[in-house]
Amino acid sequence: MSLHQSSQQNESLASSKGSGKIGYVRNPLGRNVRHRAARFMLLSCLGLSGWVIYLSLSIPASYSTSSWRVAWVGFDIGMLMDLVAATLSVWRKKASAVIYLGVLGAALIIDAWFDIATSSGVDLQQAILLAILLEGPIAIFLFWVSHKMLRRIAHGIALGEIELDPFDDEPTKV
Predict the structure, then answer these.
(1) Average pLDDT over residues 27-36
(2) Rounded to whole angstroms, how far apart are CA atoms 77 and 141?
(3) DSSP string spanning the chain?
(4) Which of 11, 22, 115, 163 is deepest in the core (most CB within 10 A)?
(5) 101 Rama class: left (phi>0) / alpha (psi -120 to 50) / beta
(6) pLDDT value of residue 1
(7) How confident is the model at residue 32 (pLDDT cuts 50, 70, 90)?
(8) Do 116 and 128 form a contact (C-beta atoms < 8 A)?
(9) Domain regions of the chain by residue span
(10) Is residue 112 a contact partner of residue 130, using CB atoms and an 8 Å limit?
(11) What is the 3-state secondary structure (H, E, C) of 91-136?
(12) How far apart, in whole angstroms, are the C-alpha atoms of residue 153 and residue 64?
């Protein structure tokens, strides 16, 4: 599609919806729910900030535990379950894939962070290489795919081609 065709399509979209914004989708939650959610999230940010300060002052520099293996294997099992859910959702063209892909990308970043933060010596070098060469690029790819899918869904909604039912996982074509 040429730049001119894209511009014409965007102008058509904006004028057909009357919003003046490209890709505008009316908030299905409504203003009150959105404001309550934003206030709750703001309070959560403040609470988490206090918790981070408390932990930074109170956590010991090192800690030994007998459940180290359970923690790591459990986290990796969670990532595997999310990968299966993401794969099935993408394969079946489900809108929920956007969420699974985002969660999996975040989990890969978290995994890389803890691998680096809890390693030393040769293990630290290996963790850094895995983060740079594998986990980071895969996470970026997953975020990109999730973003592209979300934009396509929003575009379809804005054009009136897709209707979302909040109780159905699958957007339906109008």
Answers:
(1) 71
(2) 21
(3) --HHHHHHHHHHHHHHHTSSSTT----TT-HHHHHHHHHHHHHHHHHHHHHHHHHHHHS-S----TTHHHHHHHHHHHHHHHHHHHHHHHHTT-TTHHHHHHHHHHHHHHHHHHHHHT--HHHHHHHHHHIIIIIHHHHHHHHHHHHHHHHHHHHHHHTTSEE--TT-SS-EE-
(4) 115
(5) alpha
(6) 47
(7) confident
(8) yes
(9) 1-59, 67-174
(10) yes
(11) HCCCCCHHHHHHHHHHHHHHHHHHHHHCCCHHHHHHHHHHHHHHHH
(12) 47
Q: Which amino acid is at 94?
A: K
- Confidence band for 37, pLDDT divided at 50, 70 and 90: confident
C-alpha dihedral (135, 138, 140, 143), degrees to nearest 10: -120
Tracing tokens 């490209």 back to the chain, one arrives at 22
Closest of 80, 155, 145 to residue 111, by C-alpha: 80
On the question of pLDDT at 172 being above 80, the answer is: no
Place of tokens 């918790």: 51
Q: According to the model, what pLDDT value does residue 154 have?
A: 84
Q: What is the pLDDT of residue 162?
A: 73
Residues listed for the chain: 174
With tokens 């988490």, the residue in question is 48
